[in-house]
Known about the structure:
Blueprint: E1 2-9, E2 16-22, E3 30-43, E4 54-61, E5 67-73, E6 76-77, E7 96-97, H1 98-114, H2 125-128, E8 132-141, E9 147-155
Antiparallel strand pairs: 1-2, 3-4, 3-8, 4-5, 6-7, 8-9
Amino acid sequence: MIMAIVKAKTPATNHLVIVAKASSVSWENGEYRLKIKSIAHEDAPNSGYEDKTPQLRVEFADEKGKKITKWYNLVGYETNADGTAMVDGETGRRIISESKTATCMEILGNLAIAAGAEEGAEVTIDDLKDSEVGALVQNKVNSKGNSYAEIARVFSVDSLA
């Protein structure tokens, strides 16, 4: 959504000075019925490591077509006490954590169940496309002060009020 904010009229020309401000927060906090519109494998942008995090990019849309995207990590990494990733000194690649990767798979399993898959069923990403889920959307502010909306969790549409 683009918002135009009138700042002032310039004295010399009497023209309006308009500052265009982009806002990615066009969602109210709350629970929504969303449809999975697209789902694809994608690597996360590199953040200073020799490797990229493999992810699923899932685009959801409400009944009016308004979209929101969530990225699901496919692997988890070992971390130091300060929360930074542990890195292999020879390769410069982050060290994959089996337990954190299992958590990633559990989160994806929850997405599949929310989309209607039976527990224990094997599904492909194509099976999830066009499925409906319930989603809790929350507005957040990042470390740079920018606002954004994110899907905090998904659940079965049967749980919606």
